[in-house]
Fold each of these.
Amino acid sequence: MAQVTVRVGGYSHPVACQDGQERHLTNMAAEVDRRIGTLKAMGMQFGETRMLLLAALQLADETADLQAEIAALKAGGAVAAPAPAPAAPDPELVERLNGVAEAIETIAAALERA
């Protein structure tokens, strides 16, 4: 069992993998790190756990889309054209979403204290 230290979101994480899979693991970690960098560039200001969650949700969404396309191809159906690339984020919208997220976190923290 190989041991690789990957850097994601500015933090180092030791991760075990099968021998010979080190490069694959490093590439996957780089993809997660790229997504976290994109979220940060959009103005997202969350802790490590929240950023990892958002990146994981993005990856899970893409995986579900790809699985649906594969199932459609296996069934002999047509596959919808891929969605166009998203437009550049609206800074005002990002700021408003950050405000909503902070309000939700404040409410969640108050509920946990209660």
Amino acid sequence: MSFPPIRRVVTGHDADGRAVVVSDGPLSNIAEIAAIPGTVFHEVWSTSESPARVDNGPDPTVGALMLPPPSHGTRMRFVDIPPDTPEFLAHGAANMHAAFSQIGDADASTVKADSPHPLMHRTESIDYGVVIEGEMTLILDDAEVALKPGSVVIQRGTNHAWANRSGRMCRMLFVLIDGVYDPAIAAALAGHAQEEAR
């Protein structure tokens, strides 16, 4: 199953301050993740400061893929996620450094031998994840949540993975917002990392 292409309409202002359509068409940056065949990132837009500059600037999605949002910024993307396969579940962890390197954040992967899923990862951001089509399972360290179209996950910098156990493609929409861990959470995460290093 393939999903329809995403149409992006970008507005702006003319020299007199009137609202105009700057572009209307396909996305500039669509990339399949080589280490996870069938996983496709559709980069929609990003901002690089807060408050966001409202201008007629160039398309911020042109260039290399980056998983996290820019510092003090946001990132919006659709992701098409194929069903998990037995081979991926058994051997996928070995490819995760390459997968996360392709999306600009090799350090995001947290997978280890006893991880509940090969795609376990963490970013220091608030992420809104919306199931658009298909079904998905949110995997956390000690919990799982089944998601259907219309389900929204507010991901607050936690260790997680997206498992597609449905047997068919799933499309999700993500909006990522740069964040900073609360000092107590940062200390707990640092302590956990030190324990694992022993």
Amino acid sequence: MGDKYIAIMASHRKNKFTEKYLDKYIEELVEDGNEVEKISLRDYDIGICKACGYCGRNYGKCCVEDDMQVLYEKLRKYRNFIFASPVYFNTVSSLAKIFIDRCQMLFECKYNYRKPWSDSEEKGRGIILSVAGACEYENQFKGSEIILDAFFKNLNVEIVEHIKICETDFK
């Protein structure tokens, strides 16, 4: 029996390069005996973080009532993650950033309350899939890696692979 993963698709566009590369990666994982649940952030109503501090005063709660409540439970359920995003200005998409900002609650759980969101002590595995339209250049994927490393740390997840794809504007 393989591992269980959640694949987070953070592109605004359906069936374009980021999703096609993610689907291929998922297919290979499943062929190797792993289980993968794929979610597309564009299918969820996710409001912006209000920076109100509510999560800092209320363990595991966010005052914004939207689809993040469903996504928080998915984050709790999994130890292994695949995060796929197009690269916009050397970082993740705005859709990914809104989702990550709303995970401030996870940070508060781990560092303010000293009781991580996940019940598991086991270190999880994180895989980043970054897709850029431009030709490859220095630090093109650095912003994505920095922000996703911070996001994953809140879930006790270590980045084990960063798949970098570029030049999709020319395909």
Amino acid sequence: MTALSSRMATLTLNPALDLTVHADGWRQGQVNSGQSFQLDAGGKGVNVAAFLADWGLRVTATGLLGDSNPAAFEALFRAKGVHDAFVRVPGATRVGVKLVDGEAQETTDINLPGLAATPQALAELGSRLAALGGDHGTFVLAGSLPPGVEADFYARLTGTLRAAGCFVALDTSGAALTAALAAQTLPDLVKPNIHELEAALGRSLTHEAEVLEAARDLLRRGASLVAVSQGERGALLVSAQGAVRAVPPRVRITSTVGAGDAMVAGLVSAHADGLDLAGAARRATAFSLGAITRLGAHLPSRTDLDAFAAQVVIETLRQVEKT
């Protein structure tokens, strides 16, 4: 790999402090007892940066971060060896509450709104991204857009970064994903879940053939890999090499927080290592399994990840051309 392509950056415009509360058997509308809680620096791009750093890659994390409560983020970046290039903005970074029911193996999310992005903050962030583009070959654009950021922000940034020769991965939803998939230049890697993809395309994808055709249409328009996560059914990955489904083994879930972010990190690391489609599917699923077996954005050892990867079932899917 070149010096340019070996460095990675993640962008998180709407980070959050994740308050994870373990309350087995909790009931809505009742007084519940919790067993434990944990506060972690989070946000999709922050999590991806942490996972990539755990794998041993050189990572820079940037975005917008409230200047009144950055300590947890700064501690995470120091511990992981992630370069902190966040733009500090006035105010407090939002809190996201995760209610984990270990008995039901379910996590309920309550996401509070983020800080509004001012034109000044976005201008400073633009300058920082331009500087990073000079020596970072991979960019991961992840998470929701805060107030003050136009829906086509990721779409425009993708065009700029890809024109500069960077590999771009995108993991977002809603209007931001719709705009990105409608743009002239698509990201190299797109990782929606099935519901996000349906919403972005404006149609239901009931059958596997419909999902495959939607993914292949994105490939024809410039994407190189489309990964559609489908919960316990696993993930469907489509590239020029073909299409596969990665079916994970059953594991004891500690928390589902960050599982999708770990999958993105696995796919990005697989791209960096030049893995084929099946290898990328195993790597990404192993990262996701590693994430859900522990709290916070932390991967287990490579030995454990290799063990997870070996248990992933890869199914090759037939793609039918349109007539």
